[in-house]
Each structure stands twice: as C-alpha cells, then as structure tokens.
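Data card: per-record layout.
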Amino acid sequence: MTKFWGDKRYNSLNYFLRKKFGEKVFKISLDAGFSCPNRDGTVSHGGCIFCSERGSGDFAGSRCFSISKQFKNIKEMMNKKWKQGKYIAYFQAYTNTYAPIKELREKYNEAASQEGVAGIAIATRPDCLGEEVLNLLEEINKKVYLWVELGLQTSKDSTAKLINRGYDLKTFEEAVENLKKRNIDVVVHTIFGLPEEEEEDMINTVKYLSKLPIQGIKFHLLHLMEGTPMVKLYQQGRLKFLTQEQYIKLICRAITLLPENVVIHRLTGDSPRELLIGPMWSLKKWEILNSIDKCLKDNDWYQSLYYSTN
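The structure for this 310-residue chain is written out next.
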C-alpha cells in the first residue's frame, strides 16, 4: 500500500516540523564566525574540494554581525513573505563545534533565546565532537530541540580521499553512536555526482546510511563553483555532471531505500548563480522538485518501499 506524508510520498522536513510544532517552521541560516580543521591545517588545508570560500554558508547571515543581529535581519526579511511561524536557528557555515566550549555555549544560548526559536541545527564534522562538546550539545538539547548535521557526502573510501574529507567511516560511525547515546538527532549530508563515482556508488551510500541510527538526511547535487579546488578535476576531465534525468531517477531510487522514520531535509541544493560553473540545470530548483514528485507517482514509489534491514 502506497504511503504518504501529507501530500508527499516521502517524510519531508516540512511535514515533520509541522507535525512536531503545529505550525510552519522556517530555518534561519547563521554564520557564527568559526573556522574548520580541514582548512586551518589541523586536519588539512583548503577544505573539502567542493566547498566554497564561505564554508558552505553562501546563503547564511554575515559573520560581521552578532548571532542576534543576523537572526533579526533574516527574520525581518522572511516576515515580509510569511507572517507567522516558528524558527530553527541553523549554524550553517564552516564547522560549528570547532571553538572553545565557552564561546560555543554563548552562541548556542544566544540563538536559543531569540523570539520564536523552536530549535537549533548545528552543522559540523564528526571529528569535532569530543566529550566536552558532546556534553554541551546534550545540555542544549535539554533546553531546546536540537539536531546535529554531519557531512558524510559518500561512503566510498576512495572518493572521500579524493574530495579531501579528512576522516574515515569509523570516525563518522562513532560520532553517530555518541550522539544517539545523548538522544540528539543526527542529519547526514550526501552528495550525488562526486567525481569518479558511478550511480551505484551513490546508491550504496544511501544503503549504508539506511542501516545507521540517523534521523534525517540531506541529498545534495554536486555544484561546481568557481574558486573551489574541484575546478581542477573538471578541467582534467575527471568530473562529469549528472544530467537532470539521471539525478531525478537516482533521488527517487534513494528515497525508496530509506526507512520511513528518516526525515528528508533536502532533495537538491542551492549555489550562488554567479559562482556556478555547472550543472546549470540545477538552478531550476522547483522544476527538479516537481519532477521528483512526478517520478515517484508515475512509478508508484515511496519512502521505505525497498528498505531492507539485511
């Protein structure tokens, strides 16, 4: 029997948050001024080769302003279009557990204290979740709903090395387990279209994640942006863009492999138009989302249809 989550054939973030909080919930993306151990030499230099100069925070607020000021500015812009709702304060740019505990606590609490905040989302690396940080996250989770985002991108070791991810699967799995012990929700980022990956490599990443105790997933299409180290691979012919049709079919296959309780936070990604080298079809975001809905309907596919615990 076909399953639905509201009007979708998958457990969308919008559906999950409306059910949890009883109204529309918006994310406000923040730049807390942190760095990344994969950039400053602690792990490596230059970061992951697909990552922009803003540390994947191209649509976040400006680090020139305080957390409160960023939140207020973005909230005011949102209120012009949407008059009512709650908010998730999203620490998006760079590695948001990579700072002294005192600074982390101050910034998390500042975000949690903003009017209308229903929860906090913290994007970080699994190798930046030491005991002290985990204890702080547990403390915050008792005050306000919290989820932690981990950028796995791929489960394939050779790709992880190629993109300069800087940690292994064991480190990732330990981070997931440590967060689970503290009842903190985990959302994992994946990227489809990474260099030298076949379609089955991308599907295998989803199968791998379907066996882990995660609560959410973000699917990203690889965006090649100017100024990133990945441009060199593209120039060498080692990176081929997925077509729109390939991506839509891959995402729909991936959805069917996930357990029904995993919340799908994103089905594609955004990139600043002025930085984007390709694929240019990725700019047609609503067309892509509508095509995914149509593909699922036409094939009578839905989340968990082919999920297996084996």
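Known properties of this structure: Residues 285-299 form the longest helix (15 residues). The chain has a mean pLDDT of 91.

See the next section for split statistics.
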